[in-house]
Every structure is written in structure tokens, then in C-alpha cells.
Fold this sequence. Notes:
heterodimer; A: 16 helices; B: 4-stranded mixed β-sheet; 25% helix; binds iron/sulfur cluster; DsrP-like (chain A); membrane (chain A); transmembrane helix (chain A)
Amino acid sequence: xxxxxxxxxxxxxxxxxxxxxxxxxxxxxxxxxxxxxxxxxxxxxxxxxxxxxxxxxxxxxxxxxxxxxxxxxxxxxxxxxxxxxxxxxxxxxxxxxxxxxxxxxxxxxxxxxxxxxxxxxxxxxxxxxxxxxxxxxxxxxxxxxxxxxxxxxxxxxxxxxxxxxxxxxxxxxxxxxxxxxxxxxxxxxxxxxxxxxxxxxxxxxxxxxxxxxxxxxxxxxxxxxxxxxxxxxxxxxxxxxxxxxxxxxxxxxxxxxxxxxxxxxxxxxxxxxxxxxxxxxxxxxxxxxxxxxxxxxxxxxxxxxxxxxxxxxxxxxxxxxxxxxxxxxxxxxxxxxxxxxxxxxxxxxxxxxxxxxxxxxxxxxxxxxxxxxxxxxxxxxxxxxxxxxxxxxxxxxxxxxxxxxxxxxxxxxxxx
Amino acid sequence: xxxxxxxxxxxxxxxxxxxxxxxxxxxxxxxxxxxxxxxxxxxxxxxxxxxxxxxxxxxxxxxxxxxxxxxxxxxxxxxxxxxxxxxxxxxxxxxxxxxxxxxxxxxxxxxxxxxxxxxxxxxxxxxxxxxxxxxxxxxxxxxxxxxxxxxxxxxxxxxxxxxxxxxxxxxxxxxxxxxxxxxxxxxxxxxxxxxxxxxxxxxxxxxxxxxxxxxxxxxxxxxxxxxxxxxxxxxxxxxxxxxxxxxxxxxxxxxxxxxxxxxxxxxxxxxxxxxxxxxxxxxxxxxxxxxxxxxxxxxxxxxxxxxxxxxxxxxxxxxxxxxxxx
Lengths: 416, 326
Ligand code: SF4
Ligand code: SF4
């Protein structure tokens, strides 16, 4: 028990210490969170009328962000599979960072659901035993279930592993591996169930296409790793954490397959809509060409496509994939492409035109940006804190006192 | 771009006839181990409530710990109703009666709408607003929406206009297509709701417990008829226009942050009266009755006219029928 207390104290010390850049970053995050709190207070008093959502477009920016972040979280499997199933060492050394990213992304995703609720004080009504969850019929109950399970799993895995490494002990394979293996299907199902949340609604033809869940997974495998690749480079600069180039290139290679799939599925969907040209075409048309003078989304749609295509080309050619400048440009582009696609391109056209054929053009208000900024602030803060604790443990500079001068283990996972 | 297109507001008062409600019969399928659930909730909620209750106004511990409507015992229900009445009194300075009268055996409501007669005057829209205590302005909530359509296109939503403004109706070349909750037999909204805050009653009315709804709006995304409306802000309801004859699952004043919808005027029809929209329609385009009664008006319509349902391909099986009488 005293060991745990010691560990917690050590963690707090780790988080509080840091150079000027670190302090400035933390201050910046706190400001973002502050803006978020102020905006949210305004929303809580006035009601969701302070957003630009209305009956015709009743889910929008918040839910778009939620969807994107679930994708980022799900992408951790792209590291977990090569690391644990194929025992590929370069990735095994960084997989824990992927899991930390998943935790932070899930925290943000859940917060976005909370800020979107009209009555967040009643959140317990959805909880098993305490409330009356509509299970198994409602997709949102499923979503709450898988997201929380995935969050719990990742937390247990990461904390267990870090604590063991901190103590200089080996993790117990019999506990660890089953949980890791379980986390693979759970992570896929988080994004699948999120897709089903939209997919299952016959009232919204734009979402009611069976290709939706595969498209979600494909785009998640582009956007999540894009964030990771950039983070890895930052971390190895900041912490002298040895992340091998091979690990990054392997992830980039996997991403190029995912991008191909993502673009192919998009093409398949566009073909079906434009060639058959039934009344369902309207929604797709609203996104890509606008309807009459209603063209708010069109520039975003094409921008997103351009980002994705350019990024795909950069990732496809081995020379640009292995050049860090072009690789990073590709990451930013793919990230932007998927963010726009999920944020603006998925949710809004689902509602436009409305079920009664009316067009209401939505753009987020400043308040919505503020609240979203706050949520991102909390997520980044979570990630920063987790990394600040995890990396020193992984590189061996933060150890239980009695072990500090013992054998110096190599970076990354203790190899059993 | 205006974020909120709205229609002219009608506020002239000719209050609907008042009649006191009696029944306080609990409805639904009966309690499901309410005691255990309540205990668990009390235990878990203690800490959470303090933080959260302060976020949205008007939350108190009693509300927070309340059970799902269907789990309330008759005694608890009585208390809950008394509380709503007390709150109405405080907020509007007016005495109200809030009933929770349940579905009557052998009754299943059906609605008929004669498209060849409807002239698009929107009287039904405003009668509904008044009867059901909807928010008048900012936000303006209408449970009935009347679409103006081109005769040459037929029922075609891509050419439908909800916000038509006309000096005189009907306009040449146009016809009118009112839409409200179709009380689906296979309601997508009920399936989508994560908390069972909305359900279908035995007499066919799809209801919402406003004190159980978490405001997630899944039901709005799922409804193919745009029949569900969210309280984006606290409803704007002038005290002098409050309809004091209320039903717990129908026209009692709603808080902000929850969803509401047409309930076939549950407070009227369970007392054997017509809905407000049927009563007000100047051309008699609206028919209402008990589908299980062969003598009812709605059954006559179904037997002698060719009826159709809206968005039939979605298999929601509405209890709301459209027909052309002429
Ligand atoms: S019309 Fe809409 S609100 Fe009414 S039952 Fe059908 S889906 Fe539900
Ligand atoms: S908004 Fe309310 S009624 Fe609608 S799905 Fe959510 S909890 Fe259920």
C-alpha cells in the first residue's frame, strides 16, 4: 500500500515539474478550459438555444467532434495488433502511447456527449441498475456501454503496466494478455456502434447505408495514427525517448492502406448516389454541390477531399512517406480531411434537407467553439499528464526509490 | 441566414372549455423492482447531485431521485402530480389540474386527414399551440406543421414549403399537407431513446415523460416525420394563456432541455373529447376516433375512402391516415 502512495506522490511531482515550454503549454490549456467553462455556463443558463442547432439540425458540431474522437480512440488497435499479436518490437515500445491517446480521446468523446445533452443532470437515467437503459434496442445505450468499457480497459492496462514498470517488475502475462486481446474487438466495436447510431435510422437516408460502419473504421485508421505519428516525433525530441523510425514508417504504411480503402468506399458511395439519382441524392448533393443557394458545406467537402487525396499520394510513395517533412504534411492533411468529413460532412448532411424537406443551414456559434475548445483543453491536459508520468517510467528515469539504482531496464515494455 | 424561421404568432384568447380531471390511475406495465432501483440511485446519486444540480436550474433532490413514470406506485404518482400542480401555481400564479388518466380498455385512437379538403389555414396549428401550452416565441414550437405542395409534383418533400406566407389560402396550383406525430405502431423514436423516456401507450399514443428525458435528441434524429421538438430554451408561455387542464404526459408545461410532441391531446381524448385540431378545423378535414369501434368516424373513413400513410416505405405503420374524399 505504501508503495502505491509513494507512486502517486511521485506522479504528482512529475506532473508539477517541467521546463518553461511545458509550463506555458499547461497555462495555455488552462486558459482553453477556462474559456470552455465560461461558454458552457452560458449554455447551461440559456439552454442549447445558444448554439445554432435547431429542430431541423438537432445534432451538429458537438456530435461531429464526438464521432471524430471515437475514431481517434479506436485507432489504437492499429498499434495494439502489430505489438501484441505479431510481437513487432519497434511498435511494442510505443504502443502504450497509443493507449494513452485512446484514453484522452475517449474522455473528450464522452464529454462531448455530456455537453450536447439538454439535461446532463439526468445522465444516470441511462446507467444500468440506477436508470432504465433501453437495452438492447437503443444504439446510444450500446455506445455508452462500449465506450466506457474501452475506457476502463485501457485505464487498467496502462496503469497496471506503468506501475509494474515503475516497480521494475514484469507484468503478469496471464492478466495482461487476455485484457489486451479483449481490447481489440472492443476498440473496433466502439467505432462500429457509433456508426450504427446513425446507420440504424431509416428516417435519414444519408446515414442509412450499410457502407457507413466500414467507412468509419477506414477513416479512423487514417486520422488516429496521423495524430500519433506527429506526437511520437514531438515526444522523442522532448524526452529523448527512443522511438524508432521503423515504427513510424510501419504505421505510415498501414495508414496508406486505410486511406486507399477510405477513398474507395467514398467513391463507391458517390457512385451509388449519383448514378441512381433517387431522391436520396439530395443529401449527398447538399454536401458536394449545394442545393440552390444553400452551399455552406460545399467548400468544406472539396477541401476535405483534396486533403485526403494529397495525403494519400504522399503516403503512397515510399520516398515521401519516409521523408519526415512530407510525412508530417501528409499527417496534417489527413487529419484535416477526416476531421472535416466527420464533423461537417457526416452529421449535417444527415439532417439537410430535414425529414420534411426543409433546408436550415447550420454553422457553429462562437459559444459552441468555446465549449468544444474547453473539451479539447481537458483532453489535451489529460494526455499531457499521462505522458508526463508514462514516458519517464518507460525510459527509466522515474522508478520506485528502492529500485532506482538497480538494473536499468531498457526503454519501453519490460520484456518478460 | 436566419437561424430560426418562424411563423406569425397568434395570441388571441378564446380559451378552450375547461373541465376538471379526476382520474389518477397509474398506467403502463406496472412496477419493476422499484425499491431496489430507488435505493441504488439514492446511494450513488448523493455526491453527483450536488455538482450537477447547480448546472441546470430547477433541479432538486426529489426530482433527481424520482423513479421512471411506469415504476411509480399510485401513492408516489399522486405526490408527483401534486408537485407539478404546485409548481404551476408558483410559476404561473394559476390553479391547474394535472391528471394522469391512463388508457381506456378497448380503445385505440386513429386519425384521418382529408387532403382534398385541407385549405392550409393553419388554424389547427395555433389551436394546438394554445391547447397544449407550447412555447409561443423564441423558441416557437409547433407540433403540427403544414406543408404547401405543388399539385404538379404531388406529395414530394423536395418541393414542399413549410414557411409559406399567403394573403389568401388555398393558393392556386397548391395543396396542403399537415404533418404531426403519426403515432407509429413501430415507432423509431421509442426504439432510439436510450432511457425509455418515451413509449407507446396501450391506446396508441406515443408519450414522453418530460422528467425522465435526458435531452439527447436521438428520438428527433430517428423520427421520419419531424414530429419531435426540443426545448432549446425555457418555453415562453404567458401565464394568462396557460391551459389549466393538463395531463402529466401531455400538455403540462415543459422544462428546457427536453423533447415534446403531439399526443393526440391526451388530456382531451382520454376524457372522450375530440382533439383541439379536429374541433377547430373550419372545413372538417380532420377525423378522429376509436379504431376498435366499427361505428367510429375513423373506421367509416377507412372503409369507404382510399387511405394511405406517409412514408409507407419506412414501415413505421402510422395510426394517422391521409385520404382524398373527393
Ligand atoms: S411520428 Fe415520429 S414521434 Fe410520432 S411515433 Fe412516429 S417516429 Fe415517433
Ligand atoms: S431526447 Fe429524451 S425522449 Fe428523446 S431519445 Fe433522448 S431521452 Fe429519449
